Amino acid sequence: MTTPFNPCILIPVYNHEGPLPKILQQLSSYRLPCILVDDGSQESCAELIRGLSKQYPWAQTIRLESNQGKGAAVKAGILLAQQQGFSHALQIDADGQHDLHDLQKFLAAARSVPEAVVIGLAIFDDSIPKLRYYARYLTHIWVHINTLSLRIPDSMCGYRIYPVESCAKLIQTAALENRMAFDTEILVRLDWQGVPVVSIPTHVTYPQDGVSHFRAWEDNLRISLTHARLFFGMLPRLPKLLARHFQ
After folding, report:
1. Where are the domains of the chain?
2. pTM value?
């Protein structure tokens, strides 16, 4: 029996008071249920989030009382989406980077291949910080090594659609990263489980007045440690991953 396609939007939020109202306004035409996960924001932002959930009846909010990181917020949102019977969770970052005009492309891909994780393949303009731009290439190399494939061309774009059941099961059975490295780790682990990947090219900008909580040195270190941990997790899976090339 095929599970009905029942998507929701998932937005992890941490002190994004500036861009969030515009994002919700843009999403209002889609009328999709939306889960705003407040990752321990300061009170002014928490109050704004509560106000937006009242302004837009299709948006609900849950709050983590202390800041735990983007990964922790996304995990909480996916588990709530599972509890509420959603089949897919479309993750959008709250800093205004993502082109919401592509939302229908992501939804169409998820509807067409419902078992897949649909990921954004970021197309950047000159607004991206150079350190982040070049650090992404190192992550791409590690992801190709840890999956023995090119199946995941961009593991760091936060614009994506998760199949809820397979992701919730993974969250409940594996100790996934709580911060920025989560975006990459969950994709590698889903690939290990044979979950297909569909990539959608999408333009990504870094607004001059945007709020980014990416900490260049600390988060890059955590991401590097995650790659190393995944590498050692890949080794016992080597025969199975190699066999996929001959299927």
Report:
1. 7-244
2. 0.89
The domain 7-244 is placed in CATH, from the list 3.30.1020.10, 3.30.1360.120, 3.40.50.920, 3.90.550.10, at 3.90.550.10
Phi/psi zone of residue 29: left (φ > 0), alpha (ψ -120 to 50 degrees), beta?
Answer: alpha
Residue 103, φ and ψ in degrees, nearest 5? -55, -40
Do residues 60 and 34 make contact, with C-beta atoms less than 8 angstroms apart?
Answer: yes
Q: Are 61 and 78 in contact (CB under 8 A)?
A: no
Count of other CB atoms within 10 angstroms of residue 224:
15
Tokens of 213: 């909580």
Q: What's the Cα-to-Cα distance from 8 to each of 42, 80, 88, 150, rounded to whole Å? A: 25, 11, 6, 28
Given strand 59-64, what is the order of strands in its sheet? Answer: 59-64, 34-39, 7-13, 88-91, 160-163, 117-124, 197-204
Per-residue pLDDT of the chain (247 residues; tens, 9 = 90+): 567 999 999 999 999 999 999 999 999 999 899 999 999 999 999 999 999 999 999 999 999 999 999 999 999 999 999 999 999 999 999 999 999 999 999 999 999 999 999 999 999 876 666 666 666 778 889 999 999 999 999 999 999 999 999 999 999 999 899 988 899 999 999 999 999 999 999 999 876 555 555 555 566 677 778 888 899 999 999 999 988 877 7
